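Example 3.2
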Amino acid sequence: MPAQEKNLNPSSAICEKFQSLIYQHSCIDIPSFRLSSLMNRIKERMMFNKFSSFEKFYRRCVDDKIELQQLVEVITINETSFFRLSDQFQALRDKVLPGIEEKLTKKAMEHQSENISTKTLRPDLRIWSAGCSSGEEPYSIAMTVMDSLKFPRAWQIEILATDYDPKIVKKAVDAMYNPDLLKRIPKDYRKRFMRIVGDGEEVCQDLKSIVFPKVANLRDLIWHGGTKHSLLMSDAQGQYQDLEMGFDIIFCRNVMIYFDFAAQENLVEAFFRCLKPGGFFFIGDTESLNIYQHQFETIEWQGIHLYYKP
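Structure, written as tokens:
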């Protein structure tokens, strides 16, 4: 009988082995109640690769990091949309960015009065979308930034967009979307920042020039606590670079749910270190920092929580 037709019943021991392997590779925690779902996904990969036993497929995953990566990709959900949690984007546009703009513009003016080189007069804005999926979040951020800043072309803007899955990151690089996925984009933004290409719509070059999609595993940041060079990233061409610290804003929404409590707390601390003083941290609407020990201050703004690094 072909391998894909056999009735494969995993033992508890092999389930625990896969749990441990996935955690070591990605810090993704598979709780007991999700083991059945995990093993079903593993069965699918086994049948696809024509493996006859869980133990043999486990050895393949241990020896073949690409296969292990593909397994992790199928157990995570790349759920995203443009302007997801719209109230957070309103806070970004009306509260966070105006405050940063005022502070950095004032700093630039002070440099000018002190006759510091004009090279330093162009303020920089650095934002990180961690768990960016296929790019909807970072491009939503980019649209908001370009609309909110009074003189956006006077700024050096960098929006780092990272995700674990190279195939998903490639979609963020291409920035081509089905029109059905664009319904949440405000009409004026869609007219300004998207262009029709064939049956789809592509993000305009002005936004592409400030969004930098990279492949990265947040496990490294969790293990190293946000110290310099603790996150190694690669671009679509396979060129590697280290994470540079000093972000004004970090988005990490509905990503920490995949990690256990200790990893979540380490990640929160790492993001705190990655932010500049005065920086903001955005998390999902079902997430809260109240359960962790952390150094963020909480700001209430129109019914939502903003987390701030003093």
